[in-house]
Amino acid sequence: MLFNSIEFAFFLPIVFFIYWLVLKNTVKGQNIWLLIASYFFYGWWDWRFLFLILFSSIVDYTIGLNLHKATKVSQRKLLLFLSVFINIGFLCYFKYFNFFLDSLNDAFTLLGKPLEASRLSIILPVGISFYTFQTLSYTIDIYKRKLEPTKDIVAFFTFVSFFPQLVAGPIERASHLLPQFSRKRKFSYDMISQGGKLMLWGLFMKVVVADRLAIYVDDVYMLLERHSWLTLFTAHAFFAFQIYCDFAGYSLIAIGCAKLFDFHLMDNFRRPYFATSFKSFWSRWHISLSTWFKDYVYIPIGGNRQGDFRAGINLMITFIISGFWHGANWTYIIWGALHGFYQIMEKYVLKFKLPKAINWLIVFGLTCLAWVFFRAPSVSDAMTVLQRIVTFQGTGLYFGDKGIFLFGVMGLFILLLHDYIMEFKPNYQFLYHRSPIVRYAAIVILMMFITTFGVFDNSQFIYFQF
Fold it and tell me: How does it sit in the membrane (predicted)?
């Protein structure tokens, strides 16, 4: 069930009204209702996925309680190992088994001894990468004695499966989200207004900007070799904003949806393309994932505590794992390695200062270069794109359907104007303006843009595949 689908437009009001009208005086009842709604929401894709998330929840709920009780170091390490092994084991099987098999086949083929192993038909459960990391952080924090385990099984199961952020984040920490299932939630019109505005802007980013730009980008990728360097350059600049609007749009809808039930999720994006350094970029892009990798990978393997050389290695390891998390393809690994390289060069090698405008141009340009590998189906396709761009092959600019192209550019212009105001003139935000007339006018105009220029073909959010 997609946020931009008719089914969700019926699902959300039903969940909302029963939650607030029928169950407003019972926290337990609200939690049970959210759990039922979340399992229904998740089972809408494939009911078989429910067994996996149920098993994962049971495992980490049980291990969390036993970790807290265990006094011996060996017992605690064993319990943590079980949690990591089971969760990562399922993730590796569903997401990476065929990748490892193909890589092994390729390696043996190079040695002249090809394997006869064939790929398995494995369906990747939606959201497994996200809820796996969310439950892992719960057991790791209990192991580190940073968190007390919950005994409320309904609250924990709902924490794992909470439908607004289940399939693509934000990846919440138990210390932030779990206590919200224990407190009494209060209905307020201000909360509904805030949530609705976030959802409205998120929907605009998705259907007006991301899905419009996607039509052009996908069209170009159908015949890469035939397009000029300028067309490929334009397509990848568009893709940079397509993936931003697709994922940030989802995150805003998720955050806004959670607000409707008086839950507060962490910010996941803060206008990343205004960053003037790669450090700043990663403090603005997919914040819940980047902080997760910092806290549970980078710092545990040493962080920057052992000198610049080791810190650089730790950065590279972290970013390569981050790339691999995104998908079972060498393109994602290269994407992660490029960002690791950018961070190392910026932090430890190129320490001289440049004007902000030059820094911005470098960061945005190199980020777009990395997006080539993220978008390309294969490394060879990515190299074809880069080779045609850097050698200026071909002439002219392909527009495709000019109406679609122009509508995409128009949506992109509105997005950039909005983000510029948010970044530099926050007091002038139209949706949050002090004048009611300006606020209501902005809402009406935004709804008109969504209904007139939005693409409503049930296109999935890009990060659902991860």
Answer: Multi-pass membrane protein
